[in-house]
Specification:
This protein has about 80 residues and is mainly α. Helices cover about 70% and strands about 0% of the residues. It contains one helix and no strands. It is rod-shaped, with a radius of gyration of 30 Å.
């Protein structure tokens, strides 16, 4: 929430900015964007972890295929 500096004369009075519908709308949108950004960060993290797992699986498969090919090449 955006804070508004008040002078001593304003104490006890409501500032016009505190209840401005446009300001409230912008604050809500900002909060929603912040939540969406956090979700996107989590999605990117999950994709990165998934990518690492795919690379490991590919390396394992390649290693097994190389072992099979080596075995087959030794047979007459």
């Amino acid at each position: 929430m955006i804070s508004v500096q008040k002078s001593p004369e304003d104490k006890g009075q409501t500032s016009a900015y505190e209840h401005d519908p446009l300001l409230l709308l912008v604050q809500e949108q900002l909060a929603a964007l912040k939540d969406e950004q956090e979700k996107i960060k989590e999605d990117v993290k999950n994709l990165t972890e998934g990518e690492e797992q795919v690379i490991k699986t590919q390396e394992d498969i390649q290693s097994k295929l190389n072992a099979i090919l080596a075995h087959l090449s030794r047979q007459p």
